[in-house]
Amino acid sequence: MTLQEKKAAVIEDFSMYDEWLDKYEYLIELGKNLEPFPDEKKTDDRLIKGCQSRVWLDVREDKGKLYFSADSDAVITKGIISLLVSVYSGESAEEIAEDDFAFLESIGLRENLSPTRAGGLVSMVDTIRTLAKNGR
Amino acid sequence: MDVNELRKLFPILSIKSAGRDIVYLDNAATSQRPVQVSDKILEINNFCNANIHRAVHSLASAATGQYEAARKAVAEFIGAGAEREIVFTSGTTASVNLVAFCFGEKFVGNGDEIIVPEAEHHSNLVPWQMLCERKGAILRVLKVLDNGELDLDGLERLISDRTRLIAAAHVSNVLGIVNPVGEIIRIAHSRGVPVLIDGAQGIVHEKVDVQALDCDFYAFSGHKMFASTGTGVLYGKKRWLDSLPPFMGGGEMIGSVSFSGTTYADAPYKFEAGTQNISGVPTFVPAISMTKLCREDASLSQNLVNIRDFVLETLLQDDRIRLFGVPRETSAKIPLFSFAVNGAHHEDLALILDKMGIAVRSGQMCAEPLMDRFGVTGMLRASFAAYNTMEEAEYFIKSLDRAIKMLI
After folding, report:
1. Same domain membership, residue B393 and residue B258
2. C-alpha neighbours within 13 Å on the C-beta side of residue B68
3. CA-CA 20 to 30 A from B247: which of B75, B99, B320, B325?
C-alpha cells in the first residue's frame, strides 16, 4: 500500500465508530499490534518529550525506507503511536518529512484530545518528522 | 441550603460534557465561579474601572474603595491583626516567591537551611530551591510517612541553628491531608524559626485564624476559593513585612523616587508594584461569602462530609486501587482523592472518564518528588467541592469501575 492508501484505510476504519469510547477501545486494540519493544531500548534519548505518559520511539533504515518501533506505558497513547508506526513505517525519509499528517484530524484525533494530550500527539508527529529529516 | 440550590449559582455546572451535565472533579486545580463573582468582575469593568491609589478623581477613588474593601474582607476572613498584613499577589505561587525572594535576600546566607516537607507542590518547593541556589543555602526535606502524614518526629531533628525558615502546606494538593500546622509552628517557634504556610488547598476547606495559628506567613490563591483567577494573598506578620525589602520595583511601591536614591512605601504597598488586578481582587468579597456559606451551612457541609466518607470507603475497599493519603483520623482528610490503579495508566483512565463527562486530574500534580516517594509515574485525582452532589460521586465511582474494566 502507498502512504495515501494506508491513510485512507485508517480513516475508513475510524469512520465505523461514532462513540469516543468505542474509538478508544479500537485504539487500545491497535496498540496490541505493536512489536514488543525491548526494555533496554527504553532509554531517555528515545523518549518523546511533551507527553503525559511515557512514549518511546525508535527508527531504523533499510534500503532507503524508514521502519519505526515504539511503546508506551499508557494503552491509548500506545494505540496512537501504533497507528503512526503502521502508517509511516516502510516510507522514505523524504516522503515522511513532507507529509502533512492531516489524516489525524480526519479521524478526529487532534480535536478530541485535550490540549495536553494534543501536545503529546504533536510531540509524536514532530519526533517522527525530525527523525525523517535527520535521515536517521 | 440544598446543594441543588447552590448549583444554580454556578452556571458552568450545567454545560454538557459527553452529552450530560459536566461532572467537575478537578476543584483542587481551580474551583468554578459563582454568579456573584462574575457579576463583581462585570461591575468593576462596566462601572468602576480606574487605576487604584493614584488619581484623585472620584472613579479612581471608587475603584480603590473596592480594592481596599477586599483587603479588609480578607483580613477579617483569616483573622489577621491588621489590614496592612495582607498583600495582594497573583496567586499562591507569587506569594511564596515573594517571601523566598525578600526573606531570602535579607535573612538567608551561605550554609543556612530551609525546611520543606516531601509532599509539597512545586510552587512551595522550587522557589526555595532557587533561593538556596542563589545563596548557597541548603534545602532540608521533612519526610512523609507511608500513610501520607508528615513525619513530625523528624522535624525536631531536622531543625538546626542554621534553619532560617520552614515552608509547609496546610493541606497537600495530592494527599488531601490537613497537616498539623499548629504543631509544626509550635515546634519551629520553640527553636526561633519562622514558618510559612502554603494555604492554597487549606483555605478552601479549613477555617483559618492566622493569629491563633501564629504562622509568620500564610499564602493562598483566590481562584481555588471561588474568586477571580489571577488573585492571591500573602499574609505576613507586620514585623516581618516591615523588615523585608521590596520584591519588584515600579509604580505604587515607592515613597519617593530620585536618581540620588529611592525610598519605598510601607507594607503592604511596597510589595504591590505596578497596576494591580483591579477587577479581580474585589471578587474576594463575594468569594469569601461563598466559602463561608459552603463551610458553615449545615446541609452543604454535611453533603461534602457524606461524599468524602462514601468515596474514601469505596476506594479503600477496592483492591485494584492504591489510595495515597489515608490519615489515622478521617476528620483530617479533605474530599480529595489521589490514587493509582494496578495495571491501568492514570492518563488512560482520565481520558476515558472525560468521555463519560467527568473531569479529573491525571499526572504528577506538580509534585514530582512525592510521585517518586510513592514509586509511581503519576496518579489520578478526584477533588470535590461544595457544589458536587452524592449522585455525581456515585456516578464517578461507577464510571471509574467501567473505565478500569476497559483497561484491565
Report:
1. no
2. 14
3. B75
Asked if residues A119 and A109 have their Cβ atoms less than 8 Å apart, the reply is no
One domain for residues B210 and B311? no
Mutate to test the interface with A, among B341, B345, B408 (most CBs of A within 10 A): B345
**All structural domains of chain A:** 3-133 (3.90.1010.10)
Helices (H), B200-252: 202-205, 210-213, 238-243
A117 → closest Cβ in B351, B356, B378: B351
Instruction: Name residue B341's amino acid.
Output: V
CATH code for position B67: 3.40.640.10
Q: Which domain holds residue B154?
A: 38-289
Chain A residues with CB inside 8 Å of B346's CB?
74
Find the residue in B nearest to A54 (Cα). Answer: B377
- Among candidate residues B289, B311, B345, the one where a domain is terminated: B289
Hey, is B333 helix, strand or coil? strand
Candidates B354, B377, B407; nearest CB to A54: B377
B340-393 pLDDT per residue, tens: 999 999 999 999 999 999 999 999 999 999 999 999 999 999 999 999 999 999
From A10, A27, A48, A51, active-site residue: A51
- How many domains does chain B fold into? 2
Averaged pLDDT in 10-residue chunks for chain B of 408 residues: 98 94 98 98 97 91 96 98 97 98 97 97 97 98 97 96 98 97 98 98 97 98 98 98 94 86 91 95 98 97 98 98 97 98 94 95 92 94 98 98 94
Same domain, B42 and B9: no
Q: Does the distance separating the beta carbons of A21 and B356 come in below 8 Å? A: yes
Residue B192 and residue B108 share a domain: yes
For the cut 60, the answer to whether the pLDDT of residue A115 exceeds it is no
B132 carries an active-site annotation: no
d(CA B101, CA B368): 23
Q: How many CB pairs under 8 A join A and B?
A: 44
Task: For residue B43, give the DSSP letter.
Answer: H
Nearest chain A Cα distance for residue B259, angstroms: 47
Do the Cβ atoms of B365 and B338 come closer than 8 Å?
yes
Binary contact (B347, A24; C-beta < 8 A): no
Q: Which residues of A touch B406 (CB under 8 A)?
A: 21, 24-25, 28
One domain for residues B53 and B201 = yes
Q: Are residues B259 and B387 in the same domain?
A: no
CATH number for the domain harbouring residue B367? 3.90.1150.10
> What pLDDT sits at residue B252?
80
Say if residue B360 is in the same domain as residue B390: yes
Contact A53 B345 (CB under 8 A): yes
Tell me how long chain A is: 136
Are B26 and B153 part of one and the same domain?
A: no
Please indicate whether residue A108 or residue B208 has the higher confidence score (pLDDT): B208
Residues of B in contact with A21 (CB under 8 A): 352, 355-356, 406
